[in-house]
Amino acid sequence: MTWPERHRRASQAALYLGLLAAWEILPRTGLVPRLFVPPLSEALATLVADRREYLGSLPTTFGEIALSYLIVCGGGILLGQLVGSSAVAQRMLLPVLRSAYAVPLVVLYPVMMVWFGLGSASKIAFASIYAFVPTMLTAVAGVGALSPALAETARAFGATRAQQILYVALPASLPSIVAALRLGGALVIVGVIVAQMLGAAEGLGFLITRHRTLLNSPGVYAGIVLVLLITGLHEILLRGLERKVAAYRQGA
Amino acid sequence: MSRPLVALREVSQRFGADGGAVTALEAVSLEIPDGQFVAVVGPSGCGKSTLLSLIAGLRPPSSGTVLCDGEPITAPMPRKVGMIFQEANLLPWLSAADNVAFPLKLRRVPRAERLDAARRMLALTGLAGFEDRLPHQLSGGMKQRVAIARGLVQNPAVLLMDEPFASLDEQTRMVLGDELLRIWSETRKTVLFVTHSLNEAVYLADRVVVLSARPGRVVDDVAVDLPRPRRFAMTSSERFGVLKERIWQHIKSAERP
């Protein structure tokens, strides 16, 4: 590890610690009303005290996230690879998809509740639609990045069409597949939590909304801490995966 | 003379719509005997690279035939013809040894066997000890050595080299040129070496084929009668200058900068 790298890590750690310290101290000094933001320790204490309620919301939440993840990343990446490998499909679809990206899809959620009910189906449908297009666009970008020179080299050494895909095109697009997984996963988590907050009978987002209507700030923030933990965990896992496939980046 | 190893008969190559927008090569006939080191030079865009890609079987000629060992070439024949490109074109996620072994992997040679072959080739190209490096951990010259080892790993009779040293600096180019001559004298391959550098062509080759500007035709076929092994001092000899001058006259009239 070089010195600048160490400096970077140290200053990042200091930033995180500073934010956490501010979260604890500012409400205690009265600069920020406790109703708006309770001290971190109170949120954590509530999380521990009511752990059965919070942990009980996780199976539903994780189940919805997992299914949406599967739909978004499976479908989005597969479709992205298909669209990416056809110049015609790219010219036709990409402008449409980029415009669709700009639509605030959350307006569709009430409709989805009517179609799919208050249960998990509406959360999964919303999160999947919300995350699908950006994930797919990320996957498309990776396919276009395959260098024709590598493909021709493989061909000169006798690679069949299937071998070109298996040994050259697929490994070359691994970094963009992982990037798509990272983005898709993050958006799916947002989609599920938001959907649960807007209308649900269970789940972490539902808990947050319920405590908010009761003006129970520590309860709200206990939920927020859990959401932060989930997204943080996802981020750490996917970053690790990204490092593992870094060698697959072309021109490295 | 015995049957040539590589033969082109009246080969033409046209690109573009209606089979005639651009004529890259026109009626090129060439016979290359086994073991000869042939350099191909010519003005920019004269179809030198196209010529190699035809022998590599990467595309069929518009007309005429390309023969290797008496058989027409219709598809890549990696066991007979090894190809080395201007860029090393290594797969960035594979180690040097795995890159060299890649052509064998395509033929489903068992891993231990193909890595063994790769190690021998890397030793031949002066890269013993670098087997596990990834391409980005190697210098430009070393990457090109890996590419040469990959071209040799199936022990092909013919080695096609498409400006293999063009993106390297002058010193590396000279060192690799001598290395190539050493490898050639040890393996006795037939080499077709496309280059922009007249020095390189005369220094390395037995014979220099000069192509005209587009459409590429063979305008001269120069036998390089310098003794082997070649020495750097020969590049300042009178004979070297005479040969270079003769080739330059063809190219000068065609290049319009």
Describe, in plain words, how this protein is organized in 3D.
Chain A has one domain (39-248): Orthogonal Bundle (MetI-like fold), CATH 1.10.3720. With 252 residues, chain A is mostly helical. Helix content of chain A is 81%, strand content 0%. The longest helix of chain A is centred in the C-terminal third of the chain and has 38 residues, at 161-198. Chain B has helices at residues 48-55, 96-106, 111-124, 140-152, 170-187, 198-204, 238-254, and strands at 6-15, 22-32, 37-41, 63-68, 71-72, 81-84, 158-162, 190-194, 207-211, 218-223. Chain B has a 6-stranded mixed beta sheet with strand order 6-7-8-3-9-10, sandwiched between helices. Chain B has a 4-stranded antiparallel beta sheet with strand order 2-1-4-5, with helices on one face. Chain B starts with 5 loop residues before the first strand and ends with a helix. The A-B interface holds A 149-150, 152-160, 163, 167-168, 171, 174, 247-252 and B 56-58, 76-79, 83, 85, 87, 89, 91-93, 102-103, 105-107, 134-136, 150.
Number of strands of chain B: 10
Shape descriptor of chain A reads globular
Percent in helix of chain B: 25-40%
Q: Measure the end-to-end span of chain A.
A: 19 Å
CATH class type of the largest domain in chain B? Alpha Beta
Number of helical elements of chain A? 10
- N- to C-terminal separation of chain B? 41 Å
Question: What fraction, in percent, of the residue positions of chain A are helical?
Answer: over 70%
Strand order in space, largest sheet of chain B:
6-7-8-3-9-10
| Strand segment tally of chain A | 0
Protein structure class of chain B:
alpha/beta
Secondary-structure class of chain A: mainly alpha
> Taking Cα atoms only, what radius of gyration of chain A do you get, to the nearest Å?
22 Å
Mean pLDDT of chain B: 92
Kindly estimate the percentage of residues of chain B that lie in beta strands according to DSSP: 15-25%
What is the CATH fold-level name of the largest domain in chain B?
Rossmann fold
